[in-house]
Write a structure and sequence with these properties.
alpha/beta, single chain
């Protein structure tokens, strides 16, 4: 009985071994092929990225001459990405008037009432708040102080400073560098991938 059991185990394991081995070899080959394809794609993308980086200064040169741009970034955007965008804007001839980073609290739904209260307190003269949630209202005020709208009177520096300071004090935004000395004609909003 023991001999028959041992012989059965031996024969079973050798039969299964070839099936398992074949399956493992097939799976390994498939993974190796996928890995090689991905490596090829990465190399191609790196080549394209190098080409774009080399052409960027020439392709954007003087496209935004005389314009000022406010750069606003959402949480999760790296400082390197922000700097790259700002460099490209400067290569295009634009002046970066403000670099504002939204903080996680700005997008937190539990902070909506506080943001709405801030928007009401900071409401600019002649600027009506949209009938929406607090984050939308404060976003409207932030856009109004960062960018000038054609045909509208510019916002005073005191109102710009008050709005940015209140939002920064509440830990809703962070302003890099100094406060903007003038309103921008354009704005760029950066979000993470």
């Amino acid at each position: 009985v023991f001999l028959a059991l041992a012989l059965g185990l031996f024969l079973g394991s050798t039969t299964l071994q070839s099936t398992v081995t074949n399956n493992l070899h097939k799976q390994a080959k498939r993974v190796i092929n996928q890995n090689n394809a991905l490596r090829s794609q990465i190399a191609e993308l790196r080549g394209e990225q190098t080409m774009v980086a080399g052409l960027a200064p020439y392709s954007v040169q003087d496209r935004l001459a005389g314009e000022s741009v406010a750069v606003v970034s959402a949480p999760g955007v790296s400082s390197g990405d922000r700097k790259n965008v700002e460099t490209t804007l400067q290569q295009a001839g634009a002046t970066v008037s403000a670099d504002v980073q939204l903080q996680p609290g700005y997008l937190d739904p539990t902070q909506d009432a506080e943001l709405g209260g801030l928007a009401s307190q900071l409401r600019l003269p002649g600027h009506s708040l949209p009938s929406a949630n607090g984050s939308t209202q404060v976003s409207s005020e932030l856009a109004a102080v960062l960018t000038a709208r054609p045909g509208r009177k510019p916002v005073s520096n005191a109102n710009v400073d008050a709005t940015l300071s209140a939002l920064a004090d509440g830990k809703f935004i962070k302003v890099s560098g100094s406060s903007p000395s003038h309103q921008a004609s354009l704005a760029v909003l950066l979000v993470p991938a």
